[in-house]
Amino acid sequence: MDAEGRAEAREEVRVPDWDGHGLPPVARARVDRFASSGLRTSLLSVPGAVGAEVAGFTPVGEVMGCVVERLGWTSGFGITPNQQAAIYADALRQGYRVALDRLRLEAEAIGADGVLGITTSVTRLDETMQEFVALGSAVRAETPQRPGRVFTTELPGQDVGKLMQAGWVPAAVAIGISAHTTFDYNMQYQTTMWAGNVEVDAHTRLVTEVRADARSQFRKTVQTTGADGAIVSRMSLDTWQLGEVAVAGVASVFGTAIARFHVGSSAPTSALTILPLNRV
Asked: How many angstroms separate the CA atoms of 35 and 106, rounded?
């Protein structure tokens, strides 16, 4: 490729300036390609696509949201370890929230009513920066009634179909994250090779507290959506020692907030074609 060709190539991949609000330019370009091509893509499996169709949804495209954050243990004068942990948990919540918000914006831009089978991941790019990514399949309801807000769920299409047949509708992905530190001078004696098989008090307290708080954060998130309940998809726990007498940990709870639209053992068949999406 000559110099002129290389210059043209650089011009083609140049990303416009962006202030961080609304859809990123690359996502906007995906939306434009979607509108011009008419191609409908999906990340759903065959059972997931069939389940979505049973629930009255048609896949319209795969959508994505991402953000890169500096994420690390914050230090500063007068900041306690537990305050550092709280700042770290806030940063994790912010990363997931932004990625999910951008995924939802892209779904809105292609005329979707919801996003099924969402997966979230965090990838470490270097010692301090991490990328948060949310991926899912945008779907549109086969009904003239439109929701006021695009719903999101980690549940696959077949589970959404079963959920709606039971009278429930997904509202939003809900995440609870908590981080704590615990100090105990006995830990230096309980973790040595001479201690034997004994309970390590600091670790027990930490995992109990951090998991309980993550569940509490999850419950608060569900309540803010106005939903009636939630389905937990997965939970995680990560701990690490801080010297010989302290331990830190992060617990997470992921799931979907759900709202009831029919009371009974199962929803009537007609309800699947006139979904009360204004509940979402």
From this structure: 12
Task: Quickly count: other Cβ atoms within 10 Å of residue 17's Cβ.
Answer: 5
Is residue 146 helix, strand or coil?
coil
Cβ atoms of residues 87 and 80 within 8 Å: no
In the sheet that holds 151-152, the strands lie side by side as 57-70, 129-141, 114-124, 151-152
Residue 42: other Cβ atoms inside 10 A: 20
Residue 139: burial class (beta carbons within 10 Å; 0-12, 13-18, 19+): buried
User: Could you tell me the pTM of the whole model?
Assistant: 0.81
Side chain identity, residue 205: R
Local mean pLDDT, 10-residue blocks, the chain (280 residues)? 51 60 77 74 86 87 91 70 87 94 93 94 88 95 74 93 88 95 78 74 89 95 92 92 85 94 55 43
* Alpha helices per DSSP H over the chain: 3-12, 25-37, 46-54, 81-109, 157-165, 187-190, 201-224
Q: How far is CA 77 from the centre of its chain?
A: 33
* CA-derived radius of gyration, the chain: 23
Please, are residues 178 and 207 in contact by the beta-carbon 8 Å criterion?
A: no
Neighbours of 90 (CB within 10 A): 13
HEC profile for 66-134?
A: EEEEECCCCCCCCCCHHHHHHHHHHHHHHHHHHHHHHHHHHHHHCCCCEEEEEEEEEEECCCCEEEEEE
